UniProtKB/TrEMBL annotation:
Pfam families: Barstar (PF01337). This is Barstar (barnase inhibitor) domain-containing protein. Transmembrane segments: none annotated. Residues 2-84 form the Barstar (barnase inhibitor) domain. Belongs to the barstar family. InterPro entries: Barstar (IPR000468), Barstar-like_sf (IPR035905). It comes from Streptomyces antibioticus.
């Protein structure tokens, strides 16, 4: 996903909606994003890797919303790691990677 297009919450939701092809009932708010990241029933893949480039630009003017996003990603990673493997179903691996320009300031939640 393109971090430079995620400067506000609408940009974040749009990037996730388009990249993950979120369901049409997606609520365009933080709780809805968190719910979708811990569901993903519409994606038929055993490994989901979220990458966000230019992470230093993501919600750079709103540390509170940036914290919401990072917490939602972290919670999703933990949720999928703890979810038990079910018979006849492959375990889903969910990972998130934030990429930043090496000359940028460190990304902080």
């Amino acid at each position: 996903m393109r971090g430079r297009q995620m400067r506000d919450s609408d940009g974040v939701f749009t990037q996730f909606y388009e990249a993950l092809r979120l369901p049409s009932h997606f609520g365009w708010n933080w709780n809805a994003l968190r719910d979708c990241l811990t569901d993903l029933h519409w994606i038929d893949a055993p490994h989901i890797l979220i990458t966000i480039d230019d992470a230093d630009a993501v919600l750079s003017e709103s540390t509170e919303e940036r914290e919401f996003l990072f917490r939602a990603l972290n919670d999703a990673v933990k949720f999928w790691a703890k979810k038990p493997e079910l018979p006849a179903q492959e375990k889903t691996i969910f990972q998130a990677v934030l990429l930043s320009n090496p000359t940028s300031a460190p990304v902080r939640a």
